[in-house]
Specification:
The complex is a heterodimer of chains A (97) and B (262). Chain A is α+β, with helices and mostly antiparallel strands and 97 residues long. Chain A contains 3 helices and 4 strands, in the order βαβαββα. In chain A, the strands form 2 sheets. In chain A, strands 1-2 form a two-stranded parallel sheet. Chain A is globular and about 45 Å long. In chain B, helix 1 runs antiparallel to helix 3, helix 1 runs parallel beside helix 4 and helix 3 runs antiparallel to helix 4. Chain B has 2 domains: 125 residues; 130 residues. The longest helix of chain B has 30 residues. In chain B, strand 3 and strand 4 form a beta hairpin. Classes of the chains: A alpha+beta (97), B mainly alpha (262). Chains A and B meet through strand 1, helix 1, strand 2, helix 2 and strand 3 of A and helix 1, helix 10, strand 3 and strand 5 of B. Strand 3 of chain A pairs antiparallel with strand 5 of chain B.
Chain lengths: 97, 262
């Protein structure tokens, strides 16, 4: 995903497990994970992640286009290659729009 | 609402097939050969995936796909399956060999290999309790290539029809409902499957929750989170405490990854 940092693309982690925000930030830094997460935990939790997205398990992926429309979804990890190619194809489509 | 916190991977019980005790000498022999072929295939696949990941163009990727010795592996796996099946009817070793063939088809985007593996599994091993894991694998991760959805749905319908084990039936109902529920055209079938889950597993344990809870969550997902629908917005804090909305990213391609440290 690093390769796409200059593209019109954003990777967002939806953090679905329990934990403490500061602890998650620390662990991500330690493991070199640089993406932004939407956290629904701790004092600020309102259950949005669970009530509106009802994830069936982890990991699960949703690919959204520039209008916020769901284009593809995956249960489990389909592999980096599949995700990369799907993102590339959608970026190409958006450039042609 | 703190529900549904399981990892898909935890449900994949298929590798247990490898550990199956083989009663006949010939089947034991086949099991040994299968283990050897599987190991070689796993190593070759790993380094191949690494190469493919570094490929710069579709042409380079296509060359790599063509260079994979798929026919040799397919022949070896089929020979092992035939040997095991001749020794023991419905041999788990044979099932494991067909599973490897199906996975090889997924890896190489080879529909023919995928289909051959799937056909043998649902044709000859549908009564096996291991079909519960296979049902999941058909819609999960690398086992669920985008071009395989119709085949996977057909296979899941056959597993459902032939299941002799309650676990297998539950798994096939769940996975088929989620798979066909991804498309508008599959909504009716998906909702019928969810009704069956409610009726048969309503209060019993069903993938870490009750069948009724599963069905409610799945119905919500089918009605609200299909491809082609606008994603629901959220406003949440990030790991640095900054609040942001999904809609802040309108105009950009976004990949949402539901994840967590284990």
């Amino acid at each position: 995903m690093q390769r796409l940092k200059d593209e019109n693309f954003t990777f967002i982690g939806m953090y679905g497990r329990e934990g403490d925000p500061a602890e998650i930030a620390k662990r991500m830094k330690a493991e070199g994970l640089a993406w932004r997460n939407a956290l629904d935990l701790g004092e600020a939790a309102d259950g949005t992640l669970w009530s509106r997205w009802a994830p069936r398990g982890f990991p699960q992926f949703y690919l959204l286009d520039g209008r916020g429309v769901i284009r593809q979804k995956w249960f489990g990890n389909p592999g980096e290659d599949v995700l990369d190619r799907s993102v590339d194809a959608l970026l190409a489509e958006e450039r042609g729009r | 609402m703190k529900l549904r916190r399981f990892s898909w991977a935890a449900l994949l019980s298929v590798p247990a097939l490898l550990a199956a005790v083989a009663p006949a000498a010939d089947e034991r022999e086949a099991a040994k050969r299968l283990q050897e072929v599987s190991q070689r295939l796993a190593e070759e696949s790993r380094s191949w995936i690494e190469f493919r990941h570094q490929a710069k163009s579709d042409e380079e990727r296509a060359e790599l796909v063509a260079a994979f010795p798929r026919d040799e592996y397919a022949r070896e796996l089929e020979a092992v399956a035939a040997e095991a099946a001749a020794a023991v009817k419905g041999s788990e070793v044979a099932a494991r060999a067909w599973l490897e063939l199906y996975r090889l088809g997924c890896l190489l985007d080879d529909r023919e290999l995928y289909q051959r593996g799937v056909d043998h599994l649902v044709g000859e091993h549908v009564a096996s309790p291991e079909m519960a894991g296979f049902a999941l694998e058909l819609v999960y991760g690398a086992g669920a290539p985008p071009w395989g959805k119709e085949s996977a749905a057909a296979a899941l319908r056959k597993i459902l029809a032939g299941a002799q084990d309650k676990n297998v039936r539950g798994s096939a109902l769940a996975q088929l409902s989620l798979l066909v529920g991804q498309e508008e055209a599959g909504r009716e079938e998906a909702n019928k499957l969810l009704d069956a889950i409610r009726a048969e597993f309503g209060t019993s344990d069903f993938i870490g929750m009750s069948g009724a809870q599963f069905a409610d969550g799945a119905r919500y997902e089918i009605e609200t989170l299909r491809a082609g629908m606008t994603a629901p917005d959220f406003e949440l804090a990030d790991q640095d405490g900054q609040r942001f909305k999904l809609s802040d990213y309108r105009g950009r391609v976004v990949l949402l990854d539901f994840w967590g440290f284990v």
